[in-house]
Amino acid sequence: MTTALAIESDPYILPPPGPDSLVVQDRWISATNTHPNSRYGDDIWSMGPLTDKPGDSIHKIHWRRCPAALRSEFQRLIWVLINGELRPTYVRERGFQNRGRDGVLSMRDNILQWLKFARWLDRQGVSQLSDCTVEHWKAYAAKCTGSGCTRDHALTVLRWLSDLWAFDQLSISPCGITRPPWEDEGVDDYLPAETGEARGENTTEPLDPTVIGPLLTWSVHMVEDFSDDILAAWAERRRMHASVKATASTREGLAAVKEYLTPLIDSGGLLPATVSRKHGITLAHHYVAAVTGASWNQVHHFVARRGLVRLTAQRPGPSPIQVPVAGRVDGRPWREFMDYEETPILVRHLATAAAIVILYLTGMRPQETQSLRSGCCPDPEPNADGSTPRHLIRSHHYKNVRDSDGHHISAGEERDVPWVAITPVVNAIRVLERIVPEGELLFSSTHHDIVGQRQHHGALKRASLDRRVEDLVAWINQEAAAQGLPDQKVPADPHGNLGLSRLRRTLAWHIARRPGGLVALAIQYGHMRTALDARTSAGYGNRGRRGFHGELDVETALAAAQTAARLRDAAAAGEKISGPAARRAIVGAASMPRFEGALTTPKAAAKFLSRDGLVLFDNPDSFLICAFKRDTALCDPDPGATSPNQFACQLGCGNAVRTDSHARAAREHADRLETKAALLPQPLGDRLRLTADRFRGLADAHAAAALDAEEAIA
Would you say 30 and 103 are in contact if contact means Cβ atoms under 8 Å apart? Predict the structure, then answer.
């Protein structure tokens, strides 16, 4: 009776689970989730029923990792964590905004920390949670926060530990664990000292320009030039493989095997080879069976009788498929023929290349790309005037997606505003749609795990995709060497592995800092900048989230700060300055915060860029600095724009500023154009000479009007 009254009077208290109780209650499982649920009495609990994001792994709780003496109490507490809701009063006291239930990844990290605490308590001789004292809390907090972790991580760990006490209050039979002392005394004294570490979400390093250039170039080659050959070979390989499975052993088949292989053996020719996990290099059984019309067993027995495993390892050769080769590299066919054994590897690299193109030329997060499905980017209907609208990508986003009660939604939700897809992205999606069935995930592990065939659920996992990028780079470098193009290799990146999360940051970096496009597909950066400036129509913002704009604002702010720093240094070194905005530029550079190279947040970056007229943007292609003031800009910026349209920089703009360095660079560029003009037919050469004269005129105008910094602000 008491239990019933307690539950009825306090809806946050959960009834006690039994051995057969479901680990995840039905109310927390989405209608589309099909992962099996565990029982309370199981030794392993699956978090699958809470996992709806396509690219997430299924996490499990292994109870053998919890000390036996404390296992029953921690099982009850973790069951309450999985199925309970923190009281609103506790959430408000902690200062959380709209927090209800956390997502499965946060739960996993929380649970792992609780189990670490359980093992530590066991080593201290604590066999039940009610014996955990304030001194135990303090000692464990000191252990966690004194191990070199950052202040932010230490705060997260202490909050997880506080949740142990908070969720204990939601059980009908609490364990009686004491309230952590930092809940009463304040958490600051339990955290490491401030170290000046950078905060915010922008901690990922962009890829080096020398890396992203050839990586993107080869990825686009794979998608646009090689994909037809690869997919035709893949279809033929699957047809051949299926025919072998359906072929029975016949005398004619055995005779065909002998007729095919005996001349190669006797003549010392190369034998069609594959790599086996068990035998290493061995004869390509399926290929030989397919081209001869024999069964796999007949090929296998013939290989065993003639000792061809050893012989093939000595004389490995290709396995040509009879499909045409259309792709070109540097004007010549990229393959003499498509190879049966190489084809699955090429399909794998093709899908990876498509992922790079999509991620890099949209600015999507990896998890958003993993959720894309076939049909997500339909061909648009023509407008009434006959023009064709841009392709749009319908996708889901996941970051900070919660329902009206503050509960995390594992499946995410469809973006209110779709992504804009430029041509290379559309081509990449079309390639992936040829690999997976209609309506399936574009990166479905079932259809892309073609080498291992491990049949994982959902999309390829993040770690798997990251490994595939490294494998693609190795293939690119091997291919560049084989094609006689050593200058197109992908060099090692100074910051390590080329993780997919770095592509989003790299795109923002190049849009903000390389207006002329010093990497492959430079024109596409122009399309991206145009799309991104038209914030209300381009589809990169998303309701309250700034989406990719936040990333772009950070890079733009950092680039502007570095431009200001260079201008200050140039003025201090005695360089002169000219242009209608010279005075404003000197004042802006002097008043600009010195955070160049530091990390910042999208909110801080947006505030920084809103200082109309005082933010400086370097435009190396126009050999000037733009002291951007929206009302006087001739580049036709959008209303409310905080940066110039650098692809539309106009002569005579009132925002222009030049230094001696810009003038020198303009003269050097003019000299290069003159040299090139001498090697071209007269009409083209005359055009380049006119352009060279224009750049020399800019340098001459600077020399005539340039002032030092003190004179410029007088």
Answer: no
Q: Give the span between the Cα atoms of 168 and 81, in whole angstroms.
A: 9
Closest CA to 17 of 1, 39, 46, 43: 39
State how far the Cα of 476 lies from the Cα of 496, in Å rounded to an integer. Answer: 17
Contacts of residue 620, defined as CB under 8 A and 6 or more positions apart, other chains included, come to 515, 516, 665
What number is the average pLDDT over the span 464-470? 90
Query: E strands, 290-389, where?
Result: 316-317, 320-321, 328-329, 332-333, 338-339
> What is the rounded distance in angstroms from the CA atom of residue 394 to the CA atom of residue 373?
9
Q: What is the distance between the alpha carbons of residues 409 and 33, in angstroms, rounded to a whole number?
A: 12
pLDDT in tens, 528-586: 444 444 332 333 333 233 456 666 777 778 888 888 888 888 888 888 999 888 888 88
Q: Which helix (H) or strand (E) holds 419?
A: strand 419-421
CA distances 446 to 53, 334, 348, 392, 597, Å, are: 16, 29, 13, 26, 43
d(CA 35, CA 47): 9
Residue 135 CA neighbour count, 13 Å, CB half: 3
| pTM for this prediction | 0.71
Residue 147 phi/psi, 5-degree rounding, is -100, 25
pLDDT over 70 at 596, yes or no: no
By C-alpha distance, which of 175, 305, 285 is closest to 240? Answer: 285
DSSP state of 36: P
CB count, 10 Å around CB of 451? 10
Within 10 Å of residue 552's Cβ, how many Cβ atoms? 26
Spatial neighbors of 130 by CB under 8 A, at least 6 apart, are 175, 176, 177
Half-sphere exposure of 206 (CA within 13 A, CB side): 24
